[in-house]
Task: structure prediction
Amino acid sequence: MTAHFDFLVIGDDEASLCAAACAQKAGAKVAIARSSKSRKKQTAGAMPSVPNFIWRRLDLQDFGLTLDRVSARVTLFETGDPVVTLPGVRDTTAALADAGIGDYTLWQDFVADAAALGDSEFINSASSGAPNDGAASLANMLGDRSALHRASVLSGSCQALLDDCFEDNRLKGHIAAHALAPSGLGGAEPGSAFALTDYFNDDAWRVRATGEGRSLHDILTEVCERAGVTIYAKPLERVSSDGGKFKTAIFDDDEKLKTRVIFFATPDAAADAGAGHCAPGASIRGAGAATATVRVKLSEKIDAPAHDSDAIFQIIDGGDDLQEARDAAISGRLPERLPVEFEIAKNGDIIARSAYFPAVFFEDDEWRGWSSQDRQAAAMHIRERLGSRLPGLANIILKATIDITGAVTADSAFSDCAGVIVQPSRHNAISAAVRLIDRMIVGDS
Amino acid sequence: MTAKPAEVQSAGRIEGGIDAIVIGASADGLAAAAYLGKAGLRTLLLEESAEIGGPVRARDIAPGITGIDGEHLLRILDPDVINELDLYRFGVKYAARRLDTVYYFDDGETLQLDGDLQHAADLMLDDDTRDQFGAFMGDALELSAFLRPAFAPLRSVSDENATKQALDKALGQASPEISALISRYALASIEDVLNAKFEDGPVKTLLTSEAAFLSGAAPHEAFSFMSFLRSLAGEMAGLQGALSYPEGGAVSIINALRRAVQAAKVEIRAAARVKSILIEWDRAAGVVLENGGQVRAPIIVNALDAQRAFLDMIGPDIIDIEFQRMLTAPRSHLASARVQITLKGAATNDATKENPGRRLVYAPPPEDVRRAFIDARAGRVPQNLIVEAIFPGALDTETALDGDVLLSAVAHPLPFDEAPDRRRRNEISAVILAMLEKIAPDIGDQVDIVDLRLPCDLARATGASSAAYAAKPAMMQQWALANISTSASDIGGVYFCGPEAQIGAGLSCTAGKNAAKAALREFKKRGGAL
Result:
């Protein structure tokens, strides 16, 4: 007999595992599908923070889990000193003052205002695509002047919001780069203000494993198994729907399962599974772009910029880079000045990524997919950008590997997106995924 | 009624005994004045230029050839205004109630659809595509009809609870299906929605162009699909989502409104420029004219653009800071262009000869539309534009399509320029002509006069700030701006129905109607004596 589930969570990242475990523990019947590709054994980079309520619900303290906060957010411009912001508001104000940024006095108010702006029930719920009372929530928003104002700011551009708050272009560039780089959005794009406010959310500050004990991924896999989540470690072939309550997922060995909802905890997981087009907030998370992650192995430790090896670094030349890169990517071209985010992993590797690559290339009046030359060119591009901020890097590179997600592939297992839920790109991906699946369980009963 | 010169009547004097003043004789101003006059209020309509109609005006394009500025087709004209002001009696007549559209594609293919997109009875589509198309348009039309109350200016009274209740009543009855559609489409981009529904092909291409046309939100950007729903929410001649052509063009609506205004015994005073609105005890008390005269009245309906209506005429001291910011912030950076072209001799090529009474649309490939928005927003003139063209002479039963022919076209998207120079204007004209070649090959050989109208030209004609005629931004910003401007910053007695009060592009009059109705409600509540 075919197994029946409430949720099929597709994906193998921390957010997917957390969502699956929490839903199962809350009484839902959950399956996870993860591709058979074995996860590479390598030091992980920074990941979204795991908020307290999830620690408690999954009893993570029993597993000896320890996490560190990323120490700082740093932007390395083409010229001039790095701009640094820190987890604490006071520390940041002091750091900005030291760096000679005139707007430092505005920081505290800005952080509070940005977090408050993000509190738009209508946009938050509509962007996830979870079933909700769209009409009532729209009426509420339209009838409440301040809610409407918030929604209008959120639907506007990051740049407009920052121009309203700050004078200093370096500070504006810094904030935009850290807020938008993960989703690959442009600063002038409508909706990019949403990503900006999301970034000032409590759970948006990233964490990383201390390197001692087991990885969060390992622990979460065990939590899922203990909770009774069924794990399918094989590729999905096809998803079909007969119009009833259940969808049928068919694996490549013809095993089938039936599920009410297919749940993607992150847009990357959806893109990997070929369901990128099912994301309702696709444009908010930067649809049409691919993300390249390059891992660089070095022969010796490199000196971290700003003397801080635990920070997240952004490379941009100027404030307009993000929009220009975004425009290029969605037009099917490689950007000229590629925004790159990087960090230095515990083992000394450099992990660099950029979400400003085209999902498909447009060349000679035709669209075409990624070729192996494109992959090499992308890796080269990222290495060059790293080299521009890390002097001497080229001489100590042992090996660089590249991984592309979000590239458009010809076939998709998802011809029909009914019943497919995709959590849009969020800085607090783990807590957002758990909150979303929670809301769907409540909605069911 | 002939308008009397203002100086004779009011220079240096104080006039009283008037119930309501409407500032600006645009379509909305005229509609508001007609409603007020019809309800028995002594109403004065002040227009600073010598002509009425705002941006919609007849103008000689060439000797003997009259063109009409502003809109060339009607899509969202408020049916209530037509009925309640008896506009049919005052001369509105449709030459075409629902225009057929012929779409021209990049590869030279064409597709003809009758105006009823839901029942696309075209033979060129295979059955599956036609069914998909029909189902999609069915959903879109149903949803946009449901959302109609949300596309009216939101707050015509400063009572927030009343607005809330009205919206709850209008939208609260949603079926779960409609609610799910709202959740799904509210934030979506045009591309997201269409990619999820259609394979590449003519249907996706034409829908991309229809949805992105006249919108300030690019098809790949969040919130852009809503503008499409707004454009479908209209009801022309009883047909939802139809595009109509009134006999005599859009200016005939202005003429009918003027007759309605006159029948309502409203005094129209032209060449009367208002300098400021008198505010006494936080309420409107009248207006001060440029010539020093004062006209006192407890109701002021302002149909000018919001910058003039609030910043210039009321002044920044009593206007909410947030509102001031919205008024001065750049809006969409995008604009449409209107071009009227006279052709030497009758149309000779087959494509146009066969379709003179239809709406002709060049729909570029979706990726070109996307790139055009990117270019226009960055301030460059795109290489590809969506172009909508009609032959007004062929649509009007009164004029035949022979001799010199007038072609009227609207092109989108273009960069919004405050003051474009001659080179820029030539560049824009050249691209539009190149696009028209896709519709009518070799039309270039026949072109005689090219008359280009950009937002700055409309602004110059009406005295408005050109931002008022930029493309409408994403829906959420339109909602916020309409909400705050129609609540008139909470100054009693002031009602606003300028371009910022309108949701969506096109000639609508809903803002004028709502402003007048709100004013009348308050007038009655106060026992007819404010």
Notes: The two ends of chain B are 28 Å apart (CA to CA). Residues 98-240 of chain B form one domain.
